[in-house]
Amino acid sequence: MSQLQGNIDDFGMDTISLAGPIEAKLRAVREAGFSQVMLSARDLVGHPAGWRAAVDAVRASGLRVTGFQVLRDFEGLSGNLHDYKIDIAKSMLEMCAALDCRVLLVCSSTSRHATTDLDAIARDLRKLAMLAVPLNIKVAFEGLSWGRTINEFTTAWDVVCRADVPNLGLGLDSFHCVATQTPLDELDMLDPRKIFLVQLADFMWTEVRSEEERITTARHFRVFPGEGAHSDAIAELVTRLDDLGYRGDYSFEVFNDDYQQIPLETVCARAHKGAVWLGEQVLRRSVPLPNRMKLRGRDLLRG
Amino acid sequence: MTPPLADREALDDAANPLGLDGIEFIEFATTRPQALGQVFEMMGFRPIARHRSREVLLYRQGDMNIVINAHVSHQPRAVQPTETPTIAAIALRVRDAAAAYRRALDRGAWAVPTQVEVMELNIPAIHGVGTSRVYFVDRHREFSIYDVDFTRIPTIDPHPPALAGLHWFGVVQYIGTDRMDDWCEFYRELFGFVELPDEQRFGILPKGRVLRSPGGEAGRFYLQLIEPEPGIVDVEGEESLQRVGFGVPDVLAAVAALRERGMGFVESDGVHTETRGALTRNFLGSVMFELVHDERA
């Protein structure tokens, strides 16, 4: 079977699933047939020739950058802590813009120093979104399942609505949805135009009992969609988002220690299998005809 | 006396958070300042002064100041002068420049680090669209900022009257696809601009969305945001300030006066001079001006 078979344009890999230098990661992702990749700031900053060289490598790869991650523990701080995080955010935004990447991922704060006041949190996110406007970047806010105040997409959505700014939306991560067992019916209240990124990952055990186990699982034992114990839940999540009208990207957010020590092409082949499963069996995308342009963000040519 | 009715007019500070009171100057960047200066002279401006330390010229007519900057900047994200002139900055008159600057930063504006020479004014600035900046200028009534940084050109009247009642009307900004809401929110949040309803348009080029500056009638100006034509696939579009619009009480009279000075106007089926407005020819590859019927003079 050719790896280029199937319509997997909506799906991308994340460099965090792969070991090695960024050039090798980009090559492996592209050769597996993916057209997009999610990048981490670490990929850029850790480049031996400097972050600008990493940006050049990304541009040369021809891959589209799904999103840039991750701004952590940003919201709800005050005084010097707030100013410090604004400076960090600006550095992240500048790297994101240099990549021509349109989405910055922000994870909900785990910090005990941050307020739990949802309006104050919304105000900070609004400010971040304003910083992102001149750079043409959208901010995707994601509720980490171990976030202090915001740990479910329902609360993350509440804050996004309170902030009420066009370039601030939601980042959804299937891992956190499954781990917190947030009812998927809640997805129906989301505005699909305000979902800026969907990350997908499964894991091997049927449930995670403690927050500690949840964190360990999230950081070390995720697997690609179709490989884990929650294929039905992931299929349902993706189907519901599609029914809701979501037409954005799906990125495989797979942190896995084993994948960090096997050849890149092997990991990418596993990711590809997951993408084909989602594209052809779950979403039943048709294979596009040759030479047809895809209008990004629109569903005109979808089967 | 009855108190003002909130549903008729927004008269409180929230409606004009910066005490915005019009445009102090608009800055163009180019490596051909003399050629651009000639274009402004055709539009009725006069060279008034030179910058003390940089290759920068000040042109004026009536209440309008134009700064032509040929100085190469070493700051990040700055407009570098090229042969094709670009609008590098808009300076806004505000009640308190320091307070306006702080408020903008508090709400998510990017500060522009200033690099002033000895005895020069430190004018606070934030990043605007593309590589452009927005300056905040106060105390414009009490003294002129140009007296500090500029040296007057001798024998020239420093206050030439406006030709045919020309005054600031607004600035047109080109934006990328699907960026309308982002930019409207930006100008609303940071400056207090208000969107006009779609049926309210001025001049002969009504595309896009128009935002009105807060503040009184006298200093009012407009920003017109224009997206790429629909159907253009994936325009990641350069975003920039595209042209300046001047208000005139009588468009046809103004066009006649400007023609006498050598200015040409676009006269095609789609765009041509009429009582509502007019559009000048394009100069130096990028510079055109719009005239808009506006009774203020």
CATH architecture label of chain A: Alpha-Beta Barrel
- Which range best describes the helical content of chain A: under 10%, 10-25%, 25-40%, 40-55%, 55-70% or over 70%? 40-55%
Strand content of chain B: 25-35%
Oligomerization status of the protein chains: heterodimer
Shape of chain B: globular
Report the average pLDDT across residues of chain B.
90
Q: Provide the residue-averaged pLDDT of chain A.
A: 92
Q: How many angstroms separate the termini of chain B?
A: 32 Å
Domain count of chain A: 1
By CATH, the superfamily of the largest domain in chain B comes out as 2,3-Dihydroxybiphenyl 1,2-Dioxygenase, domain 1
CATH class of the largest domain in chain B: Alpha Beta
Number of strands of chain A: 10
Distance between the termini of chain A: 22 Å
CATH architectural type of the largest domain in chain B: Roll
Structural class of chain B, by secondary structure, is: alpha+beta
List the keywords.
heterodimer, A: 303 residues, alpha/beta, TIM Barrel, two-stranded antiparallel sheet, 10 helices, disordered C terminus, B: 297 residues, alpha+beta, 2,3-Dihydroxybiphenyl 1,2-Dioxygenase, domain 1, eight-stranded mixed beta sheet
